[in-house]
């Protein structure tokens, strides 16, 4: 997963600088490809180490810090098929949820997944559009994002975090579940290897179960 992070470890300094400044438009990213996003949905339990545990932590955080408030409004950034919002709606089905993603395919999957929940609102927008066009309206008690923000550059992250902060209620929270770069290149290479080993192991395990 770290291979698709911002590229500060590209070895040639000139290339590093060049890449670092280039913003990847959502439409030119792999996520704009319906097959790529479908592949992610089908295999996310394999690709994401400890997915179940992460969802448990999300629910616990929500219950501890947010669920006591009345009329809760949440915003899910890079929602994918809506798994994060769904976990929270299972805890409290009166939540009013706004889900944003750059991919219409993903949003359709989220709409399908959340059929039956009445207070859901879907917006097709890239993070870059959120930053540039001020598309998000109102304030939220909880802004959450899972495995999505690492797709944008450092400058974009800074602008996005500013925007997120401006849309948080006074005692609101922002939770970002995401991958981070290791402190050294050697560690980063090992993390990637470890992750590949995990994927291979899980795939073999699942194959043997069939
Ligand atoms: C790895 S998936 C995560 C989906 C979901 N949050 C989850 O935890 O399963 C990344 C999601 O971010 C979206 N995404 C990636 N880059 C984006 C961007 N620049 N703007 C908006 N959405 C983006 C993709 O379309 C995809 O749905």
TrEMBL record:
Keywords: Methyltransferase, Transferase. GO terms for biological process: methylation. Residues 69-180 form the Methyltransferase domain. One of its GO terms (molecular function) is methyltransferase activity. InterPro entries: Methyltranfer_dom, SAM-dependent_MTases_sf. This is tRNA (Cmo5U34)-methyltransferase. It comes from Candidatus Methanoperedens nitratireducens.
